[in-house]
Structure formats: C-alpha cells, structure tokens
Amino acid sequence: MQEREIKLLFNAGVFESCQATPVAMSRGWTLKFIVKDASVITLDLQRSKKEREFKSLDGAAAVAKRIGFEWLNVHIGELEWREKV
Description:
Blueprint: H1 3-11, E1 15-22, E2 29-35, E3 40-42, H2 57-67, E4 71-76, E5 79-84
C-alpha cells in the first residue's frame, strides 16, 4: 500500500501500531502497520508492488512520523522495544 493511502487509514483510526523489522539478507528495514483486527499492511514502493526498504532505522522512523505515528515498535528477532519518533 502507498504512503498516502496508509496516512488516510491512520487518520481514520484503523491502525493499532507501526513496527520496523530488519530485512533478511540485507542491511535495511521495512515498516509494517498492524491493523486493529490483527492483519498486517506493508508499505510499498511508489512505482511497484515491492515492499519499501529503508537503509536506516532513522529513515523508517521519519516515514512513520510523517504518517502520524508517535511510537515505533522495533523488532529484531526476539528483541523488541518502542521508540518515540
């Protein structure tokens, strides 16, 4: 889903949380948006349906903040923490 569509859903109060997870076999991060019914929506690239990857956690946090989230849940394996964006 595109960023503008996710922002509209955020404004409608659809999401429970936003989480950043590392990309396997890469040094990047992805954003996943957890819907209140426990389904997951991923952020896609603007010109294709591939999942958007961020080079840094700061970049992913900046997009989460731009969408409207105040907190970002970070998951690395079993390690989890919340980060204020």
